[in-house]
Amino acid sequence: RTRAEGFGPEVIRRVLLGTYALSAGYYDAFYGQAQRVRTLIIRDFEAAYQQADVLVSPTSPTTAFAIGDRTADPLSMYMSDVCTIPSNMSGDPAISVPIGLDSAGLPIGFQVMAPALGEPVMFRVAAEVERLAGFDARAPYASSEAR
Amino acid sequence: MAYEPVIGIETHVELTTDSKMFCGCRVDFGSPPNTNVCPVCLGLPGALPVVNARAVEYAMTIGLALNCSIAEHSVFSRKNYFYPDMPKNYQISQYDEPLCVDGHLDVEVGEETTRVGITRVHMEDDTGKSTHVGEGGRIHAASHSLLDFNRAGVPLMEVVSEPDIRSAEQARAFVTELRGAILRLGVSDAKLEEGSMRFDANVSLRPVGVEQFGTKVEVKNMNSLRSLQRALEHEIERQTALLEAGEAVVQETRHWDEEAGATSGMRSKEEAFDYRYFPEPDLVPVAVDDDWRSRVEDSLPELPAQSRARYVAMGLEATAAGLISREVTAGSVFEAAVAGGGDAQTVANWLTGEVTALLRKAEVSLADSPIDGPVLAELSAMVADRSLSASAAKEVLAGVAAGEGSPAEVAAGRDLIQVSDTASLEPVIDEVLAANPEAVEKLQAGDGKVMGFLIGQVMRATGGKADPGVVSKIIQSRAG
Fold first, then answer.
1. Using CA atoms, how far apart are residues B179 and B186, in angstroms rounded to an integer?
2. A88 touches chain B (CB under 8 A)
């Protein structure tokens, strides 16, 4: 009975998906295929980094949404991850730099992605972005009043 | 209808590395429960495994000793299932790309040698230990179970044989040979009673001459070499009875009960459990280059089978060669004795007989005893030049073992030196012959038995120190 205790619904969902994808008869169609697609993603990034030192994007497509807004639709939840998943897939380094607040007072993140073992260039660019943004993420800010 | 048993053995060997397979916890079989644990071997969230290089090397050693090919690239895989003594809920094992494949081990039963194939040797980590508290110590009658995770994560090597074994006796010989080799390699203490070496057997029968395998039954819980043989004999009988009665053998796992002398069904395996193997994403594949492999190969010690062959070439007969080669110290003492001029068979007989008995009584190991190669060489020379009789030699051994000194010192000290020079014996013999004229007459008349009496008289007169062989010759020449 204790096997499922302590896990929220999303975790349970992912555990079950993983189990399904690995089970006999499905391994090649799901897990095996996914690994092959992952190799293609790695190669896509390798090609991109031939033309650029780093790749940048917002860390998340939207700023934070209220708790409970999207729990009914897991897919829309997953969409929040769409900018950060790629480097997870490729195994390349990435960093998120807070650069300011939106008009509602919610924080905005700037993502810098670099090629494999490219941490030095990633940190250099991130530091410059941080300097240019001039945003002190530690300072208390009036987000509750702005809302 | 005559049936032929087809047997394969799966052996698990716990390694005696300093630390566990995937973390730095100590490997120590005597520690209090749950004292050699950490987040990695307890499977706590976020813990990551790191491969123990020495364990890989030991695995390679076993593989090479079993004549396997070593994979240049091998992969760890997760074997997923739930059991309380396996905290990660998967075992990190090897699946489709194991470290060692395609080996063999030659097994002798009597005059016959069989080559048993070794399918693979792979690396995995052991589970914790469950103790079921209740009647019989088995889970069915238990009120609760206790878990000790000291063993969780200990490096475990799995050795899988081909189904080339054809009898219970051969199976026992196979496991004995395998265990001897592993002990010689020094990678495990292979104690069956402690569980550092465990085996399961797969047994099936097929009509003689038929190629197709019959239904196989897995037999577990054989905790000694003797119980392995008994369990397999029983299982072969059981399956034979079923087939002869026209019934089918059910594919299942059976538990051997040593006291009851029978196997009983544990669970029915209608379908094989789906372990959902996939490559362990937290570990990189193991790369073994030629350099590493040759270094390990060069450092392989001589295995028992090779020692046996060498000893037979030195003049020992097969059984003695087998006994001497079983233990490293005995082997090196034997070799030193022979190098020092000792007679191979004599030395071997002392080692396996008298010396073993003396050591056992004194509860001392050969390595810690004063008996060594030079001692046995000296003793052998004294027997060869007849200064000691065979029984006196045994007494000298006891004296040396007790710390009384070298063989020469003990022989002198205990007055055991045999008198064999004719000059000192002749007067004594003449006296005895003169004192026993009837016996002499009987001897001259052809009565052979009276020789024993006359020799006995000489022995009495010399305080037991006369060399009976020399005495006999002199009597013959004097009176015969």
1. 11
2. no
pLDDT number for residue A147: 41
What are B106's strand-pairing partners?
B115
| Pair B43, B53: CB distance under 8 Å | no
Residue at B269: amino acid letter: K
Neighbours of B39 (CB within 10 A): 13
CB B3 within 8 A of CB B206: yes
Q: Amino acid identity of B176?
A: T
Digit-by-digit pLDDT tens for chain A (147 residues) are: 777 788 888 889 988 999 999 998 899 999 999 999 999 999 999 999 999 999 999 999 999 999 989 888 888 888 999 999 999 999 999 999 999 999 998 999 999 999 999 999 999 999 999 999 999 877 665 555 444
Residues B208/B214/B218/B224 CA torsion (nearest 10 deg): 0
Compute the distance between CA of residue B386 and CA of residue B348 in angstroms, rounded to an integer. Answer: 19
Using a 10 angstrom Cβ sphere, with 0-12 exposed, 13-18 middle and 19 or more buried, the burial of residue B251 is: middle
Instruction: Say which residue the tokens 């209740």 belong to.
Output: B134
Q: How many CB pairs under 8 A join A and B?
A: 13
Max CA-CA distance within chain A?
Answer: 56
Give B195 or B475, the one with higher predicted confidence: B195
Q: Tell how strand B278-279 and strand B155-161 pair up.
A: unpaired
Look up residue B298 and give its two tokens.
């060069």
CA distance A2 to B44: 16
Q: CA angle, corner A118, sides to A116 and A120, nearest 5?
A: 160
CB-CB under 8 Å, A27 with B276:
yes
State percent of chain B over pLDDT 70: 99
Contact call for B278 and A24, based on CB within 8 A: no
Neighbours of B81 (CB within 10 A): 12
- Partners of A3 on chain B (C-beta within 8 Å) are 82
Which helix (H) or strand (E) is B254 found in, with range? strand B252-257
Helix, coil or strand: residue B120: strand
The minimal CB distance from A3 to the residues B80, B82, B274 is found for B82
Query: What is the 8-class DSSP label of residue B370?
Result: S
Q: What pLDDT sits at residue B269? A: 54
Contact B134, B143 (CB under 8 A): yes
Q: Mind listing the pLDDT tens digit for each residue in B16-67?
A: 999 999 999 999 988 999 999 999 999 998 999 999 999 999 999 999 999 9
Confidence (pTM) = 0.81
Cβ–Cβ < 8 Å for B66, B103: yes
User: What's the pLDDT at B246?
Assistant: 92
d(CA A35, nearest CA chain B) in Å:
11
Which DSSP category does B250 fall into?
Answer: P
Q: Computed from CA positions of residues B414, B418, B423, B429, in that sequence, does the dihedral angle turn out positive or negative?
A: positive
Do the beta carbons of residue B14 and residue B6 sit within 8 Å? no
Looking at residue B414, its pLDDT comes to 83
Three-class DSSP labels, B283-325: CCCEECCHHHHHHHHHCCCCCHHHHHHHHHHCCCCHHHHHHHH
Specify burial of residue B67 (Cβ count, 10 A radius: 0-12, 13-18, 19+).
middle
Among A75, B405, B151, smallest CA distance to B397 is for: B405
* A23·B274 Cβ contact <8 A: yes
Taking CA–CA distances from A20, the nearest residue in chain B reads B276
pLDDT at B351 over 80: yes
pLDDT of amino acid A142: 54
Looking at residue B9, its pLDDT comes to 98
